[in-house]
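Students often ask why we bother encoding 3D structure as a string. The short answer is that it lets us treat folding as translation between two languages. Here is a chain of 74 residues written in the first language.
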Amino acid sequence: MRERISIDAAVQHGKPVIRGTRVPVVRLIGGLAGGMTIEQVADEYGVTETDVRAALTYASELIEQEEHHLLPPS
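And here it is in the second language, the structure alphabet:
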């Protein structure tokens, strides 16, 4: 799935995008977080459902690599 993600300093200031587009991964994840379905996100941003799943996989891999800290109580 990683082959569907591109990072290029000349596209969206180097943010991860769906390869061959200018659609940032963060937009797709944000749509899902906002309650949209995978199908709705794909339609909204003109990408495939496989692209949306690739964005989720990419985000998951990034989180897995991060060091985690407890959030302060709210």
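Translate back mentally: The first strand starts at residue 5 and ends at 6. Keep this in mind for the problem set.
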